[in-house]
Amino acid sequence: MTEATRRTPGTPCWVSLMVHGLDGTQEFYNALFGWEFLPGPQHLGPYVRALLDGEEVAGIGQLPPDRHLPIAWTPYLATDDADETAETIRCCGGTVAVGPLDAGEAGRLALCSDPVGAVFGIWQAEAHHGTAMAGPPGTPVWNELLTYETSSVAKFYRSIFGYEVEPVVSADFDFATLHLDDRPVASLHGVGNALPRERGAHWMTYFEVEDTDGAARLVAELGGHVLKPPREGTAGRQALVTDPEGAVFTLVRSVDH
């Protein structure tokens, strides 16, 4: 990627997963999405970058054996200054759990959570600008925050990144889209008590697939689980699934594909 592809601060620019079994996880995503893998950077232990047609699309790292963190896909939001953004996150009621720290020559990162506990990363790009393409099958195409209610958490994210927040006005649907530069970049979905207790508020990554039904069947064959079978949604035909270690994500065949 070139300098010209620098992301506007607040734009989701990368997704990363920390797991216990790096080899088994690579086999699963290679079979599901056709990802190939390259090592590095090893700033937090063993780490690989997933490539599709030679372009970087995601990262997977290995947790130390004694760390029992939830296994989850984590979106990273672009920033021009990780240290300043981390300080703003703290001031606005969020938590900075890891960093800011340098990831070799690639950039500078921090792992944070919002006031309700949803985990996300911030990424100050140097050599590595993030996901090189989004849209083709096997790439992350959307990130949505599942939370209790959207209005207070929308204020938090707007304070950090200056999003324009566009709520859906509806008595029975609590939903808002985050915009930057007049384009949608992520969404917030308030689901109240329907949030899974064991996971609480969390960010959800959507991965594009050619065929949602076929991909969901493949997930099950490869040792993952289908939590919600394929159905038509606003974004397209989607299914909620987990990988063998329990990382939850959404398969989607987008409407415009």
TrEMBL record:
Q: Which CDD domains match?
A: SgaA_N_like
What residue stretches are annotated with the VOC domain?
11-125, 139-254
Extract the PROSITE patterns matched here.
VOC (PS51819)
Tell me the superkingdom of the source. Answer: Bacteria
UniProt name for this protein: VOC domain-containing protein
